[in-house]
Give the backbone structure.
Amino acid sequence: MFAHAVRCLVVLLLPFMMMPAAVGADATTAAIGAAVNAGADHTCAVTADGGVKCWGVNDRGQLGDGTTEQRGAPVDVSGLMSGVVAVSAGRGHTCALTTAGGVKCWGSNEFGQLGDGTGAAQLTPVDVVGLTVGVTAISAGGEHTCALTTAGGMKCWGNNVHGQLGDGTTEERLTPVDVAGLTSDVTAVSAGGAHTCALTTAGGAKCWGYNALGQLGDGTTVQRLLPVDVVGLASGVEAVEGGVLHTCALNTAGGIQCWGANWSGQLGDGTTTNRLTPVSVIGLTSGAAVVTTGYQHTCAQTTTGGVKCWGDNISGQLGNDTSGLQQFSTTPLDVIGLAAGVASVEAGSVHTCALTADGRIQCWGGDDYGQLGNFSAGPRTIAVDVAGLAGGATTVSVSRWYTCALTAGGGVKCWGRNDSGQLGDGAQGYHSTPTDVIGLATGVADVSTGNTHACAVTTNGGVKCWGRNEYGQLGDGTTIQRLTPVDVVGLNNVMAVSAGYFHTCALTMDGGVKCWGRNSNGQLGDGTLENRSAPVDVSGLTSGAATVSAGGMHSCASTTTGGVKCWGSNSRGQLGNDTVTWQWVPMDVSGLTDAAAVDAGYEHTCAWASGGGAWCWGRNDQGQLGDGTILDRSAPVGIVGLTTDVTRVTAGWWHTCAIAKTTTCWGANWMGQLGNGNTNQRITPVDAVGVMLSAVVDAGNDHTCARTRSGGVKCWGSNEFGQLGVNPGWIPGYVMGFGRLREDLDGNGVVDVHDILMAAGVWRFYSPVCDLDGNRVVNIVDILRVARQFGQSSS
């Protein structure tokens, strides 16, 4: 206890001790960035005092911290605490330009891209041979590097299989060589994926190297071992930027032209047609100050300090809060929250970063390797608040990769994955924050989410569904996908609805059950295996049902007499009748006579008793039955520790949660869906941190959500598609250590110690165990409690 108290006191008080005296606006600034550069899957920044910090993937040592450990927040580059003026991040290596005009590189080196004369990877910076002085600019490409000398000449080294070094050969070089014909009169250099470009003193652009998609801009697809002129750009160019497979230039009038690969619209000309010569970016024929190229997207900083991006958006790298399968834009879009105040912008492979005028750094897009520097897209192992739903929800429903909530005003809002239109907003773009379901702003009594479709019960007893519909699961008499809600045929007396994997069931006001959709396993319960695009009665359940639940390929209902009946697939014993035989009509679950309700998961089922006990049965390889084993069960078994006080159990895909004296979860936990602060599998219940006693809890595939007693919604687990309702990186978020100490950096709606830790770059010291009151806010209450523990422990 004493050690715990001391550790928490340090955690809670350290950021306050680190805060500078309040002497104006600058006193609230954490680290200040002087420059930022995005590599393929890592990012680096030069601080105001000339140091270098990097974060993201580190498998080749490209972060320069002496390890190969991936970093989700900035770490110092070894030996470069000061004296650096620029940094350039490539695919697996990084280089820095010192104030003395020297070049140091680190990371991957199999092609000699570090320029140290060896082919050995380096985990810390090494000098580039012959370039310890006399360099004014550097650029790290895919597997090669180039530098601009004080004499205006260009030198390159590394991989040369496509002639990207420009020395007239295809021989790799372990040390710098001159670019033929460019030993003077060069003002800027840019190394792309496997090609290179330069800007001359005359304002012309020249490129060389790989050209299969026209990225050299010479009107051909012929590989070039020597520099060639870009068609139409012999003068008037202010900057040139080589991407992986495309290139862009900024002209002196502030216009942007691009050429090369365009399958995701990265050229910004309104098409997806590859271009062998420059084309103008729509809407940016003037007013641009900076252009930057990523893998399949491009961004620009405007003269007013705003940022626009276009091209691929599958990871949210355009920064407009939409992402998804094959999502892209062929014309520039405004980046949310960055309409002004930006000093520079840098595009990586699938992420983008911006440096603001006051030295802060914001990043957005893919975060698979921590390249955003703020743990944005990674799974959350403890609950986070859903943005915009504080005190305004009455229930929440969780599906595989998206979530919906019923608001206090009777409306429906959904967020997360949307490729099948399951968010009901009339489009198919993903959303990381709740969006209104069209036509359901009021008048809704309940909502249920299936795999890729959702349904709602209206206050007049009707049912509306939307999303995927190839099996008729929307119940509108068709198999047509719907992006907005449609009426289910013939239902006007419904009190509850449950959307399953590819089917749906409803409970009528007279206790009957009707189902529709896919029926390959008998999950509709009508005695057949025929799919149905409109509701059919479940055999033997035209009355007497109390609740209904549609699972993966099976369905269940609790009866008014306390029994439970299930039907459909039974390969893992999920019907609970002591067999593994499929059933096309309802069968009694063994031994249950006091059930209050039932919930069907993917291949397991749970029920709870009016007396407060609970049982589960079916698949159990992840411990989702909670009986302390991983053995499948074809009949109900009790859940360890949950013999009383249970008011709800929810069966997800691979995990289960319950509300009893606390909110508890068990089963699979690879994405933190149990909410206990780690990713360890549990075969018995554990408390969800920061949720305490919720009013409603619902488990999905690899995330979980709960409605709090105050009407807010909290979610935890995977956030790959924005299903937690917090920014997964699709809009700009501050890099740890490069924010402001008094802003809500973690997006939980409260400016607290978490935000101070993030801004100060000391988040790594934080431990959830210090949030003693479990409200997800480390505040003065926690400080007082820790201080009290400290006093008790030391007395």
